[in-house]
Amino acid sequence: MRRVLRNQPNQPNMSDTPATPEMAPENGAAAPEQAAGATLEQQLAELQAKHAEVSDAYLRAKAEAENVRRRSEEEIAKARKFAVESFAESLLPIKDSLEAALASHAAKPDTPVETVLEGVTATLRQLASAFERNKVIEINPPATTKFDPHQHQAISMVPADQEANTIVGVLQKGYLIADRVLRPALVTVAAPK
Predict the structure, then answer these.
(1) Which residue of 95, 110, 152, 165 shows the fewest CB atoms closer than 10 Å?
(2) Which among 125, 123, 127 is positioned nearest to 91, based on CA atoms?
(3) Which long-range contacts (CB under 8 A, 24 or more apart) does 131-136 make?
(4) Per-residue pLDDT tens over the stretch 61-93
(5) 33-67 pLDDT, tens per residue?
């Protein structure tokens, strides 16, 4: 706030004199405008520093999110590419057994049938074990089981002495993998009477 001095006989007219630094108040305090200007400049500098900090944090977070997204996509691509690795690995001993059986038969064509059956049975057990480890489950419904279109595929309806829409026989087993139908069981179904 400025104080206007009026012309008095013994005092010079202050309005005619230019303001100089020497005219600052005697107690050394800055003029109110200078204090307010300094405070605004300080606030501006603080806000600019805060803005730079927030902007930097935003850019870092954005880059981190992009890295996480890219790594996730790479992991998903690898999972898809190597999803069957475990299953294929469990099938390798079965292939080895079948090749050994063929080589054995080529070396000794007069091998007894019982020996061949033993080999085939052992190989079938290996396959069943591989299926079990990889959560491949047989769909082999017993007779009189209610027909389920989600797991069974009806090939024909036949007259039978059992309730209609129940399974009479299985022509080909089906398989589930992790509760998903890999192949439905091919079945015959009892016809309505």
Answers:
(1) 110
(2) 127
(3) 131/175, 133/86, 133/90, 134/86, 134/87, 134/90, 134/177, 135/177, 135/178, 136/175, 136/176, 136/177, 136/182
(4) 999 999 999 999 999 988 888 878 888 899 999
(5) 677 777 888 999 999 999 999 999 999 999 999 99
